[in-house]
Amino acid sequence: MCNNSVETTYRKRAVAKWLTSTHLYNLIALNSEKQKSYYGSLLCSSRLYQEPGKIVSHYCNQRWCLVCARIRTAKFIQEYGPVLAEFSEPYFVTLTEGSKDTKPRNFTELVERLNSYHKTSVKIKRAFRGGKLKGIRKLEVTYSTTKRWYHPHYHYIVDGKEVAEKIVQIWQSVYGKKRAKQCKSEPARAGFEKELGKYITKFTKTVWRNGKKTYLPIPSLNLDTIFRALSGRRTIQPIGIRKVPLEEEMLEDLQAEEFDEIMDYAVYTWNYRLGTWLTDDGEPIVWAKEHIDKRLEALPYTMNELVFAEKMAHKIGYENGYQSMNNNR
Asked: Checking DSSP bridges between strand 212-217 and strand 204-209, what pairing results, if any?
């Protein structure tokens, strides 16, 4: 076993790995153009390797992977946190538009809306001369299961109230104040950089039923639509600032976990049913099943249904000749 700090980290990572796998099984079954990439993410961090002083793995770095999203958030904070911390008056801006009659409801409409938003973001950038616009732009797309529409929107972190208000004014001049009435600018709260680096879409909707928190999964077809529409698009765009370059060793440290003691086994393999990585003798690196069981209670699936989905996903992968990351080590 590893020390408490590493154990806590890998317990959280195990939950992220399990939740990602759960969503991926249904995404793979769609047989969309992203199927091969989805299957590759199913193999992400499926084996952990012990190296002197640390544990390493292979990562897919895909947008739909919650394991990689955690690493990407940490990387974002390391790269841009020091720069954003120097802002004298950080402001958080949200840009969106549309009503129930104009929100995108399919892939074509979503792509058209994203193209329009990009053009408007270029117009915003050109409206500021002499490097007055400094900050980060983040693109997110969510889906409403009740209203059945997609909700693309931008978040900006900029320096200065006047800059933030001008961005909102330009956006409303393009889409109209009535359609873009939900746009707003407000002083950035503490820890805003973490929120900005978290996700590009939500996999579940949280609701309360009989006093219990329940996670309703966003339909796989809608998630696939979002990921296809975002393909080739930059979701995080620095404007007028430069990130702090990370050395290769520092980047590896974000992906790996250091530990002091010598572990008995060199390789741990992911086991979906138990929700952890096991040695060949069945010893877990951490035990996260109790945390996963709590999430499972809040999902509208049974474990038997998920295990069946797991088998079908792997069957689809092998039938299509997808190569395991683990064989490339």
From this structure: antiparallel
- Name every residue whose Cβ is closer than 8 Å to that of residue 115 and which is 6 or more positions away in sequence: none
Average pLDDT per block of 10 residues along the chain, 329 residues long? 66 88 90 91 88 82 91 87 91 89 91 96 90 90 93 95 96 92 90 78 84 83 96 93 71 52 69 86 78 71 75 75 46
Sign of CA dihedral 64, 67, 70, 72: negative
Q: Which residues does residue 153 pair with via DSSP β-bridges, in sequence order? A: 140
CA distance 191 to 195: 7
265 and 283 in contact (C-beta within 8 Å)?
Answer: yes
- Tell me which CATH code domain 79-239 carries: 3.30.70.60
Residues 6+ apart with CB under 8 A from 322: 36, 39, 40
- pTM of the complete model: 0.86
